[in-house]
UniProtKB/TrEMBL annotation:
GO cellular component terms, semicolon-separated: endoplasmic reticulum membrane
Its biological purpose: Required for efficient N-glycosylation. Necessary for maintaining optimal levels of dolichol-linked oligosaccharides. Hydrolyzes dolichyl pyrophosphate at a very high rate and dolichyl monophosphate at a much lower rate. Does not act on phosphatidate.
Stated name of the protein: Dolichyldiphosphatase
Source organism (scientific name): Python bivittatus
Family statement: Belongs to the dolichyldiphosphatase family.
Taxonomic path: Eukaryota, Metazoa, Chordata, Craniata, Vertebrata
Length: 121
């Protein structure tokens, strides 16, 4: 892992034009993972659609849990304050701190909650 301010050879980056998620140019795996990193957006759109049309208490509480999870993520980020590696290479990154990852924490909450919902039901 690179120390703060120490990046390896600069890599040209491409971005997904929809949301400016960046991946190394010419890297198929990076491109696939860049598109997969957009899954939380589609999950939120799906939940809002379900809430508008179904109005089920379970769906509303699940979305509330996701929002609470994001609040916990923000709190942990501001307590730990782990700097992003090679932050100067990506000046367009909005979030100041890297750990914990918002995407991975979101997907873990979604996966565990869905598993427990199906298992306990």
């Amino acid at each position: 892992m690179a120390a703060v301010g120490e990046c390896s050879i600069p890599v040209p980056w491409n971005s997904v034009s929809l949301t400016h998620v960046e991946y190394p140019a010419g890297d198929f795996t990076g491109r696939l993972l860049a598109y997969l990193s957009l899954s939380p957006i589609f999950i939120i759109v799906g939940f809002i659609t379900l809430i508008v049309f179904k109005r089920e208490l379970h769906t509303i509480s699940f979305l509330g849990g996701l929002c609470f999870n994001e609040g916990v993520n923000w709190l942990i980020k501001n307590i730990v304050q782990e700097q992003r590696p090679c932050a100067e290479a990506h000046p367009s990154v909005y979030s100041k701190y890297a750990m914990p990852s918002s995407h991975s924490q979101f997907m873990w909450f979604f996966s565990v909650y869905s598993f427990l919902f199906l298992y306990l039901r």
